[in-house]
Amino acid sequence: MIDTHCHLDSERFEADRDEVIARAFAAGVRGVVVPAVGPDRWEPLLDWPSRRQEIQVGLGIHPQLLPELPEPEDERHLARLDELLARGGAVAVGECGLDAPSVAAGASMERQLRVLERHLELARRHRLPVLMHCLRAHKELIALLKRVPFPEAGLVMHSYSGGADQVRFYAKVGCHFSFAGPVTFEDARRPLDAARAVPADRLLLETDAPDQAPHPHRGGRSEPAYLPLIGAALARARGEAVEALAEATTRNALALFPALGRRA
Prior knowledge:
CATH class: Alpha Beta
Order of helices and strands: EHEHHEHEHHEHEHEHEHH
Oligomer: single chain
Strand content: 5-15%
Largest sheet: 8 strands, parallel
Helix content: 40-55%
């Protein structure tokens, strides 16, 4: 299986990152995508794939980080992002997106949309897929995707939080859908309904570690070794064999991030 969204660069892994990675690969994880969330993470992350081919990275500005960044600096950061993507080494643009709770924290939806539109432009320019965060802002995201050209390399709805009824639109425009720990929760309903609606060739797995730990680790630190728990929950919900789902999601991930299939 491939963990398409895992924040291995988080400070919560500083003490045991090597052990976390070892446990992941012992559990059957064959690749990990690590998305940067802000400008201070970009350059350090770009060195990671050269040390281990199975770990690839994305570069972007998370909408939840925008309240901490001065708005007049947005264009400077985006220009720097353009330069680093042109240098090569990243397999995706993001994590980026829209986050309704961040409006109250100081990042207006207008600013978020403006920054996201620039990420989509960069993804088209550099022919890279997008890692999309969308929390309680699907109306705004759908309107944006109807207005701007879709990234030809694809777009991943990270930890998809929309409903099954919205899957049809997102799939029609070309999105993939990734699911994390919430599909394992005993009270899970909405994410499982959405997961059942996703076409098999658009389905992906992720942990979003260190966040969204799956059952029975809910409330603790997540890590990529827990990915099989998420795969098993999705397989049960969709009425599929775990092995078949693992094979399909791995094939989908490698189509989006072919660098994960190469060997140094």
